[in-house]
Amino acid sequence: MCVDSNSHKKKAMKNLRPFLFLFLQSCFFLSYSQKRNIQFDHLGTEQGLSQSSVFCITADSRGFMWFGTGDGLNKYDGYTFKIFKNNPKDSNSISNSNITDIRESKNGDLWIATLGGGVCRYDYNSGHFKRYLHDSKNTNSLANNIVNSVLEDKDGKLWIGTPTGLDVFDPLKKKFDHFNYNKSDSNSLSDPLVRYIFEDKFHQIWICTANGGINLFQPASNNFRRFEHNKNDSKSIAGNNVYTMFEDSKNRLWIGTDGAGLDLLDRKTGIFSHFIHNENNSNSLAADAVFAINEDADQNLWIGTENGGLSIFNFSDGSFTTYKNDEVDPESISNNSFYSIFKDAKNNMWLGLSAAGVDLANRDKTKFTHFKHMSVKNSLSSNQVLSITEDSKKNIWIGTDGGGLNLFDPQHNNFTSFLHENNNDQSICGNHVLTVCEDSRGFIWIGTWADGITVFNPSDNTYKHFKHDPADASSLNNNNVWKIFEDKDRNIWVGTFGSGLDMLNPDHTSFTHYNYDRNRRDGISGSNVLSIFEDSDGQLWICTDGGGLSLFNKKTKTFSNFLHDDKQNSLSNNSLSSIMEDGNKNLWIATRGGLNRFDKKNNKFTVYTIADGLPDNLIFGILEDGKKNLWVSTNKGISCFNPVTGSFKNYDRSDGLQSNEFTEQAFCKSRDGMMYFGGHNGFSQFFPDSIKTIPF
Fold it and tell me: Which helix (H) or strand (E) covers residue 400, if one does?
């Protein structure tokens, strides 16, 4: 168990991990890689969606999102839903509640395809639906009331796909022309069942069918060029059952089939390239039933499959990354079967799912990379991240609450786990890891809650342990080790929770203790040591929980203490989390009462709180970027502080942070400028210069 420094109540703690070039023989050492996490927000019937199967998605020019479901048309303003359903007593209502497609017309009205109610045009001004239905007595009417797809072309004509062929409606003539499959005419539509209609950037009209591949409409001759599967031609389309089609930003045409995978069409040659699922290749397409395709702002292709999840294709390296529903991760996709994918004006990705509503990959959440524990074995071992440290080999050590130690290779996203093994002294001493420190010899010091210290030697894979021994006064003073720090003189300092400060003696076996004594003014100011820091002048500063700040004099072995005082300039609070020095030699102190700057020359404190722009007064970690801005982790997100202007820019979970709540020792700036902040849902990783506001 470990202690919460805010409440002084015990908590559980987790995780530890080693160098990638090491291989331990026992089962407590594992190494895997974790893909970049995408956080999905969910909209379902609990949020007001009319039904959970979402067949189509669009955004109108007014900024509203529209979702077509099996039971209603949904208009979404970002907060609430307005639902349109068929009312048999109202001829101005939508003709059918089963919505298959939605497209906006040039004048801002909506065309809606329904399964049994033909086509409707939604008039924004009146709020009424005008119905276009099949009339058996009128050959110029819609051919079929079951409509799979609608498209308004550049000339304002409406193309309509039905199970019995293709219709084209001229709004001026108010007449439907019909294109049908003719077995004896190779220039006719290749199949009567039209699934999807697509207009490319050259204004060519493509027709996707259930049994005849795809058709390109040729306006000069008013007929079609067929692209059908030929089992004797590997360069033909992979299958004839085509669900969708998409053109990317490079004008490449992609075809999604039901059972034959993903195809790429070369317009010039008419040759198809094939991408299929391979069970032996984790970087292949997730499944061969492809129902939805779109492209994100980074020019990656998003492919929604049936039962296989989401595949994201990187064209430059030809690899697919698959995202599936993870029962452990509430921010994973809600279902592995897709009907639609839509990119909005802000480059957010909206996913229409089978029986699971809508998932939203918010572009704002891509500002920060998020790593967390998932059900797959190649993830962080625990979401409760307590400490983050970089070693001399640029690996990142992550201490967790109950999951041991994780070693993270940021170049390859590889994780290596160190776990305690019962009755094996050649494993770490405990799995609740509060602090990690690499000393000048390259040894890794691991401080735990309740289990003391482990010193790991990576060169020979050996472990040495320090624990409190009541019979030995020179042993470690307390097994609750909150902070381990090596100073410039190569002294190892240990901050304990409950027994003050320890220093390892030159014999490397015993400790000198600096205990809190309330009657001694030149002693350490508290028993609970949360942080130890040496400034550029070689002065050692000790942060305590409840006892303020102590400055240790190495010559006299005494302390000068700084405490909160309501009557004079002082610390804002006596409970401190961490301390750092900026490029101007100012000390910055994280407290429960805001951010404190200490001018060492003038012994003056300046305090910044919520009133100055901080999101919360409970501060955990402080890091300085290359532009001398301070990045501050709090109990309500991360804040970027400009000391020159005194302004704060705040970020929270909606920007992609692991959580709004962070932890005391879980922060680190790597040698290359990457920042890490950890909390109760993994850790966030980012380069400060990459954090920019995304315009709408």
Answer: strand 396-400
* Residue 314 near residue 321, CB atoms below 8 Å: yes
DSSP symbols for 332-364: S-S-S-EEEEEE-TT--EEEEESSS-EEEE-GG
Return the structure tokens found at 366.
């891509």
| Least confident piece of the model among 8-12, 307-311, 404-408, 436-440 | 8-12
Helix (H) or strand (E) holding 274: strand 272-275
First to last CA, the chain: 47
Q: CA 266, CA 193: separation in Å to the nearest integer?
A: 25
Q: For 562-607, how does the pLDDT look when each residue is reduced to its tens digit (9 = 90+)?
A: 999 999 999 999 999 999 999 999 999 999 999 999 999 999 999 9
Tell whether the model's pLDDT for residue 31 goes beyond 90.
no
Q: How many helices (H) and strands (E) does the chain have?
A: 0, 59
Asked whether the beta carbons of 584 and 598 are under 8 A apart, the reply is no
Please state the φ and ψ torsions of residue 206, each to the nearest 5 degrees: -115, 140
> At 490, phi and psi to the nearest 5?
70, 25
Q: Would you state the pLDDT for residue 365?
A: 85
- To the nearest whole number, what is the mean pLDDT of the chain? 93
Task: Let me know: does 585 contact 598? Beta carbons within 8 Å.
Answer: no
Res 366: pLDDT: 82
Lowest-confidence range among 57-66, 182-191, 366-375, 533-542?
366-375
CB 288 within 8 A of CB 260: yes
Quote the CA–CA distance of 18 and 29 in Å, as a whole number: 8
The rounded distance, in Å, linking the Cα atoms of 107 and 653 is 38
- Say how far apart CA 533 and CA 540 lie, in whole Å: 6
Q: What is the mean pLDDT of residues 136-145?
A: 96
- Long-range CB contact pairs, 258-267, < 8 A, 24+: 258/289, 258/290, 258/291, 258/306, 259/288, 259/289, 260/229, 260/288, 261/285, 261/288, 261/290, 262/290, 262/293, 262/303, 262/313, 263/237, 263/238, 265/227, 265/237
Residues with Cβ within 8 Å of 274's Cβ and at least 6 positions away in sequence, in order, are: 234, 238, 260, 261, 262, 263
Q: Give me the residues paired with residue 438 across strands.
A: 444
Is 50 exceeded by the pLDDT of residue 170? yes
Q: Are 43 and 357 in contact (CB under 8 A)?
A: yes
| Spacing of C-alpha 52 from chain mean position | 23
Cβ proximity of 605 and 570 under 8 Å: yes
Q: What is the pTM of this model?
A: 0.81
CA distances from 311 to 141, 243, 337, 353, 369 (A): 41, 16, 11, 14, 19
Give the tens place of pLDDT for each residue, 357-404: 999 999 988 889 999 998 877 789 999 999 999 999 999 999 999 999
pLDDT digits (tens, 9 = 90+) for 535-552: 999 999 999 999 999 999
Dist CA 459 CA 667 (whole Å): 26
Q: Which residues of 104-117 are buried (b: 16+ CB within 10 A; e: fewer)?
A: bbeeebbbbbbbeb
Half-sphere exposure of 150 (CA within 13 A, CB side): 32
Kindly write down the DSSP assignment for every residue of 79-128, as one continuous string.
S-EEEE---TT-TTS-S-S-EEEEEE-TTS-EEEEEBSS-EEEEETTTTE
Judged against a pLDDT cut of 60, whether residue 428 lies above it is answered with yes
Can you name the residues that pair with 158 across neighbouring β-strands? 152, 169
Q: Are 344 and 65 in contact (CB under 8 A)?
A: yes
